[in-house]
Amino acid sequence: MKKSLLLLLGASAMFSAQITLTKAANDPISGNVVNYNHVTGVVNNSATGANVTFSNGGLTMGVSSITTYSTPTSTEISTFPGSTIKMADGATTVYYKASSTKLEITGIVNPQATLNFNVDNGTYNSYPLTYGPAQNDTAKGTFSSSSANGLFSGTMAAIADAYGTLIIGNQTYSNVLRVKYTQNFNLYASFDVTYANPIGTITNTAYAYYDASHRYALLNSTSGNISVPLLSINQTVATALALNETFLATSNAVKKENLIVYPNPAQDFIGFKGNTDNYSKANIYSLDGKLVKTSDVKSGNIQISDLPPASYFIEISGKNATDTKNTKFIKK
Fold first, then answer.
1. CB atoms within 10 A of CB 34
2. For the segment 206-233, what is each residue's pLDDT rounded down to a tens digit?
3. What CATH number labels 259-331?
4. Which of these, 34, 145, 284, 291, has the minimum number of CB atoms within 10 Å of its CB?
């Protein structure tokens, strides 16, 4: 119950938009695949209040991290009652209960530990979530790991504490709402049904940055600590993720002269102008960072007739994953 557990309590901070978060615009949807990347550098979360600038121009692209949403199986729903959607992020899965006004956590599963919120689900978002008012809730259930089993009880909170302009690398997003999420849980032995003597704690703080054009957060960062003295566990973990799009846009600003897509706008196919000899694969992304198509660069033209009319990012890469070219095109 170490790293992944800490990351999940905060890194599931991936839903919402500027000024007001709503169920229609920001609840996760089964079938969605969200392309994130870890960021290199430290996220600057210091700005608070109205009309601020979130300055993160020094962040650069790290390794890929794919998040998928799907419908829980009947067995999963039996284990985590009330679950309506699950999020899978690597080896970790989070179960949620989505209602007309709330998104609640019902369970967290990873190789290190399981948290089952079967006594009292924890509210993640209560809609609408607007700048200013704090949302507070309690949570309670059971935990299990290879080292110990027991009970947990504590609080969860969300507050949109800032809005303004977000800068990531060379990319700028306006009208961004920043939400701060906190979780504070005490851990108890399984026989301590009165929750009298905690044997450990889990604390977590996460920041998520949303704009009106994306269902999921543009950028999120998490810092958490788990402490169980009886098991000699005391670990602090920090991580940060940004939508793949934020780096595609940054790379496009830097390298757009090196990759030209034609025709643009296009209806049935696109090709490339310039030297693409060292590139073998092309990935096409929607503007929210979702991978929608993969093709072989060496095949010449790439068919796009199956794509809905919209703007897209295209990224070509070769054997060296860090050597990529990116640009934007329009499908008519």
1. 24
2. 999 999 888 999 999 989 888 899 888 8
3. 2.60.40
4. 291
